[in-house]
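Weekly structure sync - notes
Attendees: PM, LS, DV (DV joined late)
Agenda: review two folding runs queued last week.

Item 1: First target. Sequence and C-alpha cells pasted below for the record.
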Amino acid sequence: MLELSAAASVLAPGLDAAGRLHSLDSLLADWEQGLPVARSVLDRAIDACAPGAVGAKAKYAEALAPSWHPRSRITLHPPVSRPPTLRDFYAFEAHVKTARAKRGLEVVPEWYEFPAFYFSNPGSLIGDGAVVAKPAWTEALDYELEIACVIGKRAKNVAAGDWRSVVAGFTILNDWSARDVQRKEMAIGLGPAKGKDFATSLGPALVTLDELEGKRSGDHYDLAMEARVNGATLSRGNAKDAYFTFGQMIARASQDVYLFPGDVIGSGTVGTGCILELGTEVHPWLESGDEVALEIERLGTLTNKIG
C-alpha cells in the first residue's frame, strides 16, 4: 500500500503543497482537484518501481521504498474519520417487510412515497479490524449489512439524476444495533437513537465510481453482498435490489440543505442482512468473541470482532 503524501514528496516536491494527500478527509475537502493529483502520484510511483527500472527511475524506486507498506502492518481507520453527518436510509423493501412482520406490522404506505433516513452518530465510527465494545445494557446485539456512499462535493437540492456528480465513492457500512433498546425507543415514537449510536463500522476503503462502472445499470449496481459470523455465511443479498436508488436518497437528503464533503449516506440493511430478519433460531444475538465479516463485491471485506 502506498503512502501518497510521502510518495509525492519524493516524486514531485511541492505537488501536494495544499496537503491534499495527507488523509482521505483532506482529499475529500478538495476532491475535484485532489483526486487527479492522487492518481498521478500513484501511477508515477508504480511506474518508477516497475521491475527492471534503471537510471533515474531506479533512484526513485529506492527513495520510494519507505512509502510502500505491507497490508499486514497497516491499521485501516474508517475512510472518513469524522463525517459532518451520517444519514442511514431504509431503502431495501425486503428488509422493511421482514423486520416489520417480526413485530406484527405491515409496511406503511408512506414508506413507498419517499426514502426515509435517520441521523446516526458521526463520532462513533470504527474501521476494519477494530473491536466493537458490546454495550453492557443490551442483550440483543445485531449487525446490519449495508452499502454506503461518501459525498465528495458541497451541494444542495441535488436532482436524482445528478447524484453521481457529488459522490466520491462507495464503501461498506455495518450499522450495529441493540435491538432490545431500539424496540423500546421506537415504541415511544422516537428513534432509533441509543440503540444505534454506540458503534458504526465503515470501510475497509473508499472505491471510486469509475471502478464500479462495469457493474452499473442505470442508478443500480449489481454488487453481491454477504455477511459471515465466525466464518459461517448468514446473509446474502445484492445492492441492485434496493427499492430506492442512491440518486433518490441523495435528492431527499439534500432538499433545502447542503451536503458536505465527507457526509456518509447509508443504504439501510439489504434483505436478510441482519439477525433480526433471520431470527435467533438461525443465529443467536451477538456475544463477546464473535467475529462479523461483511463483504461486498469490489468493495472488499469489513471485519470486526465483538469485545
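Item 2: Second target, run right after the first with the same settings.
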Amino acid sequence: MLATDYVGSHTLRIVRPLDLDPPAAFIRTAPGQTRTAQAANCTRPYWIAWYAQHGGACDVVKNAGPTPPYSVIQTDVNGGSAWYDALNVNLSHHAQNGSALLASYTWSHALDTVDPDVPSQNPNDPRLTGRRDELGNAIYDQRNRAVLSGIIAARSGIRLGGIATLAGGLPYNIVTGVNNSGDTGATTDRPVINGAVVRRNTGRGTPIFQLDPFVAKRVRLRGDHVWANLRAEAFNVLNHRNVVGFSGTWGNGPAPGRGFGAPLAGVTNQLPARELQFSVQIEF
C-alpha cells in the first residue's frame, strides 16, 4: 500500500533572549569589522540618558570616571517563530504469515528565528531579531530521512527484523567566535561571507546511518498457559559514528579558520554507539 501526506506547522511566541537596552545596530559588510564594547555602550539609550542626566559625555575610547551601573539589560520575551513543512511517503506490505515491510521517506524543511535550548543562539545583532534578519534553518532541520523496517516470521516461532535509518546531516550555527558588535559578552556574531552576514545555522553536518536488528522467539513453558517471549536486539549494530555536533567557529577573516567544521568531542555531540539488549517476558 502506498500513502503520501503533507505535514505542516507554524509556531508563534517562542521564548528568546532580548537586550532591553541594546546598542545601535552595527552593520558589517566585510570580514574583520569590529566595534569595541565601550563604543557600543555609548550608543545604548540608557547610557545616553544617564550621561545627559549627570552632565557628562560618554568616552567611546575608554571607560573613565563615573559610568552607568548597567550595560546589558537582558530578559526573555515571546518573540520567536518557527515553520515546518514535510512530505511523507510510505510503502507498506503485509504477508499472510505475519511478515511485514514498511519503507518510509520524509522530505522536510524546518525554519525558525531562534532555537532557545541551544547555545550560541543569541541574535547576530541585538536590534535585529525579526524574521528578515534571524530566520534560518532550525537546529533540528533534517531535509531527508529514509527508514526501512520489517519483520520476517520464520519457522519454529522465530521472528527476525529491524530498522535501518539513513538521514541527512543536521545544521549548526556559524559564528566568528569574537564579539564583533561589542554588545558585551555575546560571541554569536556570524561572519561576513561573500559580502553579507550568513544566515543562522547554515552549516550542515554529515549524514546519519543506523541499523537496529532484532531476533525474537516465543517458547512454551507449561501447556498452553505459560509462555516466554525471548528477544535479543542491537542498536547501531555497525557502531557507526553519527556526529551531530560540529565546530561552527569560522573566525573573523575571509576564510575559515583551523578546525572549522570539525566534529566536537563529548557524548552530547554524537548519537549513541552500539548497544545490545536482551529481554525475557513471561506470559500467562
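Discussion on item 2: The helical segments are 37-41, 45-53, 131-134.
Action: LS to circulate a short write-up before next sync.
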